[in-house]
Write a sequence for this structure.
């Protein structure tokens, strides 16, 4: 499956205020946009209220 970041994901990333690093925020925003849980061991992503982490 091929997927590219679009404007809707960038807008979603702008709402994520508890993940300071841009690339991590874009990863979380992509999961949020696709309504999918994210697999991560990054503590800032795990602690975010904006994305579900497995």
């Amino acid at each position: 499956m091929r997927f590219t970041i679009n404007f809707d994901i960038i807008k979603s990333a702008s709402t994520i205020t508890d993940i300071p690093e841009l690339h991590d925020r874009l990863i979380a925003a992509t999961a949020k946009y696709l309504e999918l849980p994210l697999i991560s061991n990054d503590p800032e992503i795990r602690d975010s209220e904006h994305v579900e982490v497995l």
Observations:
- Helices lie at 7-14, 22-34, 43-46.
- The longest helix spans residues 22-34.
- The mean pLDDT is 94.
- The chain is about 45% helix and 0% strand.
